[in-house]
Every structure is written in C-alpha cells, then in structure tokens.
Amino acid sequence: MNDQANSVEQRFEAAAPAELSSWNRHDTTWMLGLFGTAIGAGTLFLPINAGLGGFWPLVILALLAFPMTFYAHRGLTRFVLSGREGADITDVVEQHFGIKAGALITLLYFFAIFPILLIYSVGLTNTVASFLEHQLHITPPPRALLSFVLILGLLAVVRCGEQVIVKAMSLMVYPFIVALLFLAVYLIPHWNGGILTTASQVPAPSALLHTLWLAIPVMVFSFNHSPIISAFAVDQKRRYGVHADERSSQILSRAHLLMVVMVLFFVFSCVLTLSPEQLAEAKAQNLSILSYLANHFSNPTIAFAAPLIAFVAISKSFLGHYIGASEGLKGLIVKSGKRPGAKALDRIVAAFMLVVCWIVATLNPSILGMIETIGGPVIAAILFLMPMYAIRKVPAMARYRGQMSNVFVTAVGLVAISALIYSLTA
What we know:
The chain is mostly helical. The chain has helices at residues 2-15, 25-38, 41-52, 55-81, 89-97, 99-135, 143-158, 162-186, 205-222, 229-240, 244-273, 276-284, 289-296, 300-335, 342-363, 367-393, 404-425. It starts with a helix and ends with a helix. It catalyses: L-serine(in) + H(+)(in) = L-serine(out) + H(+)(out).
C-alpha cells in the first residue's frame, strides 16, 4: 500500500510545476471559505462563555487562539495531503491505518462534525424566531414548521454542489466581515468595563486553570473549520502538487490571522459592553450574542442588523460543515458494504440530515451545553490528536516530527477531551 502511494506521489511530483505560483483569486476564495466555515454559531456564542470566566481567562484564551487553531488545522491538512491524489480524509485514514481503523476514524469524523449541524440548526431557528418576535413583532410560526423550512432551504443550496457552496460562502464573507466590524466598533461607546472590575482580582491558580480547562472546548469549536479541510487539501494537491503543503500553510495562516483578529475584537467589544449578569441571561435564553444585543439595544439599526448578521454567519457555517458531515456519512455507508449509486447516496444523506436536524432544532436543546460536551472535545480528537499520532506513526509524515508545535497541539487536544470527561462525570 505504501509503495503504491509512493509511486503515485512520485508521478505527481514529476508532473508538478517547479515553482510555486503567485497568490491568486483561487487562493483568496479558499481563504475566505475557511474563514466563513469557522465563523458561525461557535463564534457568536464565544463572548458569552468567555466573558463569564472573567478578565484574565479571556486574555489567556486570546493569546492561545492563533497558535491553537493554525497548528491544529495545518496538521490535519498535512494528514490529508499525505494520501494519494484525490483521496479525502476517510480514504487517507484507511490508507495509513487499515480498513478497521479507517472505519473507526470515519465514524468519529462523522460524529465530530454532524453534531455541529445540529447546533447550527438550533441556533438558526432561535435567531429567526427571535427576530420575528422582537424586531418584526410577528408571532413566529410553530417551531417545527419554522425549523423545517429553514433547513430545507439550506439543503437546497447544498444540492448545487461543493464549488457553489465554497463560492457562496466566500461571497457572504465580505458583507459579514464589514457588518461584524461595524457592530464591534458601534459597541465601543457602550463599553462599561464591567469585566475590567475582575482584572484587579487575579484568580487563584487552581480556579484559573479550571476556568481555562472548561473554556478550551468552546474555543476549539469557535475557530473550527475542520469539516472543509479535507476538500481544501484535496483541491490544493490537485492544483499545486508538491507545493500543496506550502501553499496550504499560506492560505491557512492568512485565514486564521483574519479570523483571530476579527473574532477577538468582536468578543472583547461584546464583553466590555455587557455585564456578567447579562451574559448569564443570554446563556439562559439559548440565544447568540447578536440576538441578545438586538433585544438589548433600542437602536433600530442594531436591532435589525444583528440578527441578520447572525443568520448569515450560521447559514454559511452550516453549508461548510455539511460538506464534511456528508463526506463522513457517505464513507460510513460505503464501508458498511452497501454501494448505492452516487445520486441515490446523495438523496439518502440529504434525507437523513434533513430529518435529524429538523427534530433537534424543534426540541431546542442548550447550544452551549452541546458545544461543551459534544462539539469541542470530539472535534479535538480528530483535529488535534489524530494528525499528531499520524506524524509519529506514518512514514509519509515523518518529516514533520520533532516540532514543538506538535507537543502544543497534542496538549490542547488532551485538555479538551479531559474537559468532556469532567463535564460528564461532575
């Protein structure tokens, strides 16, 4: 198997360009697509969870944001790039670890991503229902009907294909960045510094570590765009050959820099505007920070703009995560021995996604609870730990061994998973 993979890679290297081309529109589209996948429900709930922890935990999380997200996603990209040309993440796992391990990782990959679709389904339904009730003063339709129409609409976009999804997300990113930046700047005169009162009270080391420990899974989830990494890596290898790792790292670093700067400015602006009691109220209402701000301010511009921004953010993240979730489910169906035709497989996957997302959105479970106990930790297993294990064991990834970033990524992954165990047993 390794010899076959090496021969394919050698032939591909021979056909690859000698030098890496300059940055182009295709790279910008992917950069914005990655940004768009990550900025969604997690980001819109991050100010609530991070702000409740106090000032110092928020500062530490801000310092960890870029290295934590960049090194982890770079590792997963390199893992997919280490496989045969055209192989997605499920194929690469089977190639490196065997059929049984491939089936297990494919199952974990699916369960790392699919709950995110459920989270977005709940968040989208709550955002639209709150907008209808508080801003338009219209009684929302029954929750079951509203969630069904919203999810069906997003799945209609999915039917247009992967390239259309990526382009749609990249187009939506431009107005979203402007709107998010506008909102963060608008909040500056409303900063009351409530959280700064905790700055003079340095928490005990044990309390600080405990707060960070439970906050890291939410941070992992908030900056996560692992579901689209497989498609991203496959496309980079097809386009750049032996230079795929270098160009992928450039795209990832720019996407993460944009992501971290924008998100942290927005987070700090929200946290400095609202008191800890108001953040707790937003958490209890199961609303994103944008929907809560819309209901909090009397300014009609903010009241209408904030929910619309939340709608766009959650919608485009849903689309990006659907790519990964459908990829994982298709892999599970194929590995189970059943091999329906491509069109039939697409219909089966779409029907399953529609029904389950609709049921969960109707039931309205706690979004932050789902992030803390399912989303962040399970993502950490796939995004942080699996690529680091592959670097240690897979010959094709041996050149990445011995880097300090590997230790850092592994530590963050273990912290996120241990937080899950604690939250389930506490």
